[in-house]
């Protein structure tokens, strides 16, 4: 699976799995809110609706999918600021992140105020996710990897058939998630990447929380945080 900005669709067939995805950049942080759907059912999930909910709803309408779930990679405001509003608008459950990020979801309003972001609400997801869990949308199944470090409750969504992952802010193209926020730990983050993500295989492509996506192989070879140059 490859990513495309705004309403440009991408589709890839691998084995029997078919999926499409669009990225909707939201908030001043240009966070990659991602809509992924199963083909041909058009059943979809919204990952990390950080804000700008009208923009997300418009993208859903233009894509012609039926959103049945919201998934969260972690609890930082730029990833969850619009989650409660979108849940109410679509009447769908929120799944994730790991319960270790509960303190962040309990303080969405306060976090938003620090960045001038209004409209967010504190909330509890309908399901917390943990290592070894799985989530699905239509015929697509994603395994859950608990990858703390950027936040204590960060999770990664991995689809074996598509050789694709959504890694949130754990790993970026050429970089890794920041660890200077409450609950962050650089050592823990690097351990999560090396023990959870790198073993997935070099052929696995990923969408991350900000910026362009990449592949595990590319990052293994060139990411200075992984090669030990930083």
UniProtKB/TrEMBL annotation:
CDD domains xrefs: YcbL-like_MBL-fold (cd07737)
Q: What are this entry's molecular-function GO terms?
A: hydroxyacylglutathione hydrolase activity
Q: Which Gene3D superfamilies match?
A: Ribonuclease Z/Hydroxyacylglutathione hydrolase-like
Q: Where is the Metallo-beta-lactamase domain?
A: 30-210
- SMART domains of this UniProt entry? Lactamase_B
Q: What is its EC number?
A: 3.1.2.6
Question: Which InterPro entries does this chain map to?
Answer: MBL_Glyoxalase_II, Metallo-B-lactamas, RibonucZ/Hydroxyglut_hydro
- Cofactor(s) required, per the database record: Zn(2+)
Which keywords appear in this protein's UniProt record, sorted alphabetically?
Hydrolase, Metal-binding, Zinc
In terms of PANTHER family, this protein maps to: HYDROXYACYLGLUTATHIONE HYDROLASE GLOC
Task: Please report the name of this protein according to its UniProt entry.
Answer: Hydroxyacylglutathione hydrolase
Species of provenance: Bradyrhizobium yuanmingense
């Amino acid at each position: 699976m490859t990513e495309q900005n705004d309403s440009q669709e991408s589709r890839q067939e691998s084995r029997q799995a078919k999926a499409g995805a669009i990225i909707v950049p939201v908030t001043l942080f240009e966070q990659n809110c991602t809509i992924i759907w199963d083909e041909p059912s058009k059943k979809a999930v919204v990952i990390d609706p950080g804000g700008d909910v009208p923009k997300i709803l418009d993208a859903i309408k233009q894509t012609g999918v039926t959103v049945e779930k919201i998934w969260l990679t972690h609890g930082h405001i730029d990833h969850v600021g619009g989650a409660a509003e979108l849940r109410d608008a679509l009447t769908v459950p929120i799944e994730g992140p790991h319960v270790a990020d509960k303190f962040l979801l309990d303080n969405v309003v306060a976090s938003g105020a620090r960045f001038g972001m209004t409209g967010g609400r504190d909330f509890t997801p309908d399901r917390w996710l943990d290592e070894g869990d799985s989530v699905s949308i239509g015929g697509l199944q994603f395994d859950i990897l608990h990858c703390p470090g950027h936040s204590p409750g960060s999770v990664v969504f991995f689809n074996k058939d598509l050789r694709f992952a959504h890694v949130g802010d754990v790993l970026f193209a050429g970089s890794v998630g920041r660890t200077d926020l409450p609950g962050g730990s650089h050592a823990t983050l690097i351990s999560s990447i090396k023990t959870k993500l790198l073993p997935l295989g070099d052929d696995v492509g990923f969408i991350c929380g900000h910026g362009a996506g990449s592949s595990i192989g590319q990052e293994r070879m060139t990411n200075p945080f992984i090669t030990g140059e930083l």
